[in-house]
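Sequence design from tokenized structure. All designs in this work follow the same two-part layout: the structure record, then the generated sequence. An example of the structure record is given first.
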């Protein structure tokens, strides 16, 4: 069965906490999007120390959409954080990625690389083996509610060929229709923000993605 992870883009810790409380009964995982206003045009809540005040057992996936993740990722090594993902095109090379991968694995945290729509699978072939998970963006990173880019489906298929036993996560523009297409292409996890949080019934929205026709 496909796994569905709700995504939160929050402007404050209070907003983050409120949205977490809304989805906790229906999921074991949550993705928190972190934007610095440099790598992406918008800024979000970005204070890892406040996560220590979060009273929840939910597993957290931190999606770092920031310009220098190599200087920031260790701040997110916290209780409940089980996975940290960053964009490889924001990095300074293979060795840095390898170093970060080893640091996180030693802390029992999964390491993930994220690919924007314009980053090809061929550009990161040598990095895929370092990752526990590869996140493909179906939209330009930064804002929720964007339309899914169909070319993402071919990227999922190509990545599945290179990463046969790996976890492929797809984020951006996910609804029941695009969920079905991503699952058929080879996705393992689907991330959805606006579709879930803008729905009248969060439980039903998650289930409509999980059991996409």
């Amino acid at each position: 069965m496909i796994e569905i992870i709700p995504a939160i883009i929050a402007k404050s810790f209070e907003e983050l906490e409120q949205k977490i409380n809304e989805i906790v009964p229906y999921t074991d995982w949550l993705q928190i999007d972190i934007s610095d206003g440099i790598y992406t045009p918008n800024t979000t809540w970005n204070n890892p120390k406040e996560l220590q005040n979060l009273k929840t057992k939910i597993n957290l996936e931190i999606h770092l959409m920031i310009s220098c993740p190599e200087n920031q990722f260790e701040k997110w090594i916290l209780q409940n954080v089980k996975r940290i993902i960053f964009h490889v095109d924001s990095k300074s090379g293979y060795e840095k990625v390898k170093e970060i991968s080893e640091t996180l694995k030693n802390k029992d945290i999964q390491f993930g690389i994220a690919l924007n729509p314009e980053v090809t699978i061929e550009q990161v072939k040598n990095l895929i083996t370092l990752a526990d998970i590869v996140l493909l963006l179906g939209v330009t990173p930064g804002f929720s509610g964007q339309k899914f880019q169909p070319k993402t489906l071919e990227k999922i298929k190509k990545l599945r060929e290179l990463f046969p036993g790996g976890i492929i996560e797809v984020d951006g523009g996910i609804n029941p229709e695009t969920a079905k297409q991503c699952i058929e292409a080879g996705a393992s996890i689907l991330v959805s923000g606006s579709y879930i949080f803008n729905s009248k019934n969060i439980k039903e929205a998650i289930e409509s993605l999980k059991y996409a026709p």
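The chain is about 30% helix and 20% strand. We note this feature because it recurs in several other targets discussed in the main text.
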